[in-house]
TrEMBL record:
This is Pentatricopeptide repeat superfamily protein. GO terms for cellular component: mitochondrion. Keywords: Repeat. InterPro entries: PPR_rpt, TPR-like_helical_dom_sf. It comes from the Eukaryota. Gene3D superfamilies: Tetratricopeptide repeat domain (1.25.40.10). Pfam families: PPR_2 (PF13041).
Amino acid sequence: MKLLQSIFTGRPLIRALGRRYFAANPEEYARRNYANNLSEYNTVIGSLTGQRKQFLLRDVYDDMMLDGVQPSREAFHSLILGSMKGASLQDVLFFRDEMKSMGLVPDVALYNFMISSCGKSKNSDLAVQILEEMKHYEVKPNGQTYMCLLNACAASGRLDRVYAIVRDMTAAGLGLNKFCYAGLITAHLNKKPVTEDTTIKILEYVERSKEWSSVEASSGTAETVMMGVTEEELYNIVTAEYSHRRGGFMNKQLTVYHVAFHACAELKNVQMMDTLLDMLKKDERSPDLFIMIQVIRCWFQSGDIDRGVQAFQDFVESLRPPVPVDLYLALIEGAMIGHTTKGMKVAEETLLKMNSSGYFLNGKVGSELLLAAAGEKTGEYIVANLIWDMMRAQNLTPSFPAVVEYLKGLHARDLPKDDERLMLVSKTCNNLRTRSGGAPRRM
């Protein structure tokens, strides 16, 4: 029956065979099957997205097809949304094409998700093509559509297109809100080469953004709100990852400042950062945690370890305990830039302080730190070893790229082949390689 279903749903037979073992007994089949009906599949899709396992959505969809379950419009919404959150443009376009092949035309919300995905992939050409596709299907763009397009073009540094969109919005009587100014700043940041005009323009747009009224605070549609998508996520603002967090991590009224301070760190421009801090003070605003992190990053990116450490200490003194773990992580990441002896010592001391204070690394953060620490070419590899040990103590396995680089660093230190750490890391690396579909390798 499954074989017939795979043929009559129009799916390639070889794809079907790759996903199922038709001789499996009922118990084995049930174990491999994601769900049995549309309602259960919708639950699975939402759960995978919530767990950030969007890479499994294609597999779930294949399972639906093999089970003969017809995806609803709502199911495609969840699949495309999940793929957008996972920054998988390829999957977004795949689900769009599948949807259209079933006679379902995407609505404006889905097209906005597609354009947003183009922004994540810095593919402004495709974003423009998707807008033309909307017009072809007579799907009317809304304010969010143009905001997604503006920020998609900004991610690619296409300042010419950003200006054109702004002109069109102004001509249509649409006011420029904070996300427009954020896009303009991002476009200048990403446009190459960087010139003196870049700093001037960024500061100019921060100043001009103050004309924006909080009455215009949200252009979010009921649908995006219902689906749990913040505007920061939809427009790929630098604070997107933190937009669901509470506890004062970021003040959403400071969006333009967030993007501008992030630009300071990326450009290693301490002078612009000081100017922005003065502007913030004149506005009678205090830096939120996101801005604090960008200030620390800016000092470290510019190569001033002492000022970076001092900025961290000043911020800590201004806060009520406990110290947010994000500040510690910003200090560690910044200190490891360039892998200087002084910076690696700061990173080591901070990790030890975190550990003694009861802070823990999660899999994502631990992997990122290990990957950064693994780049240390000289020295005793203390920081990388410490991060590995902290993750092992929590039964966490770093990402495959992080383990590969860490193993390279261990080999570069000419450890004996029977070294306990070397053997364990090598075994972990081979296990991760096998899971990812590669063959084990002798290291």
